[in-house]
Amino acid sequence: MANKRTAPKFHRATPAVRREALVNATLRCLKKYGHDGVSVRRISAAAGVSIGLINHHFPSKSGLVAVTYETLALSLQESIRAQADNHAASPRERLSGFFRASFAPDIIDPQLFNVWLVFWSMVVHAPEIRAVHDRTYRKYRAMLESLLGELAASGMAPPFRRRPAAIALAALLDGLWVELSLNPSTFRPREAIALCEDWVDALCRGAFPQLLAPASRRAGRRPRARAAG
User: Fold this and answer.
1) pLDDT score of 223 more than 50
2) CB-based burial of residue 63 (10 Å sphere; 0-12 exposed, 13-18 middle, 19+ buried)?
3) Degrees (nearest 5) of the Cα angle 203, 204, 205?
4) What is the pLDDT of residue 225?
5) In whole angstroms, what is the distance from residue 153 CA to residue 131 CA?
6) How far is the C-alpha of 162 from the C-alpha of 165, rounded, in Å?
7) How does DSSP classify residue 95?
8) pLDDT tens, position by position, 45-90
9) Helix, strand, or coil (residue 14)
């Protein structure tokens, strides 16, 4: 008698796999539809699951968007950090690698910019997304503080206050990225990189008095001329 074929066993996806699939589906919907992509119906259709399954894995739609936000932000930060994580390079060269990675083609992507617009628009109203924004910004600023700290420790720059320097550099990077994402014809990525390089060179020359550490700031002051008596 011929052997009966054994029916393939059904493997239920683990919760972690399900959550990852839902996050990826959310990201695809946000890229394609923008704000309309936040719809749970669209996300469930893209993931090929029921709306009930989304509610099972995430407490709310905002919770799902928040996890998607954090996943994307940390992934991009890791990609950029890896470009600067060359220990054979000097601290100055590592900053250059960070700048090049920050304006790579996959970062300057109009669809990706649409996703960020959705996240930012929800920050004010959704506490979960506000918390993610605060955490990911702190991590991003910490990366810049670390790179700038290595630059100062190398002696290539006068002692400066790392926190405000990192805030200023982050603002420059973000502003250039937003303008490039809104209209790529305004200027080229290489011009944005050059502006960031010029900013660091100016920092190394002590051109930002308010960023200098107190002792360095005093040392940079010129003595006042005495009044004729």
Assistant:
1) no
2) middle
3) 90
4) 43
5) 32
6) 5
7) H
8) 888 887 777 877 888 888 889 999 999 999 999 999 888 888 789 9
9) coil
Q: What secondary structure letter does DSSP report for 207?
A: -
The DSSP symbol for 161 reads -
Distance CA 91, CA 151 (A): 5
Beta pairing partners, 160: 212
Rounded Cα distance between 109 and 50, Å, is: 31
Task: Report DSSP state, residue 5.
Answer: P
The DSSP secondary-structure symbol of 160 reads B
Predicted confidence at residue 190, as pLDDT, reads 97
* Residue 176: strand, helix, or coil: helix
At 125, which helix (H) or strand (E)? none
The pTM of this model reads 0.82
Q: What letter would DSSP give residue 4?
A: P
Tokens coding 103: 């304006």
d(CA 2, CA 76) in angstroms, rounded, equals 56
